[in-house]
Amino acid sequence: MNLMHRYSCVKAVLAGHDHKGGYSIDSHGVRHRVLEAALECPPGTDAFGSVYVYDDRISLVGTDRMANTDMHFDHQ
């Protein structure tokens, strides 16, 4: 975490996996999105998504088990 917090340009961290997924904002304002585990998918379903990067946010558009997430941030 110290490495990420050294740089003000770090706005978000995507990591995987946690079986239920997760999202939080730490004390430095960095958004953390832990992706859902594909292992937990029922047969015939998926857990993947597409990431879209904009000036003011990062959007994860998920399929099936993976939740959609919009991570908004302020310009600095």
From TrEMBL:
InterPro entries: Metallo-depent_PP-like (IPR029052)
Name of the protein in question: Calcineurin-like phosphoesterase domain-containing protein
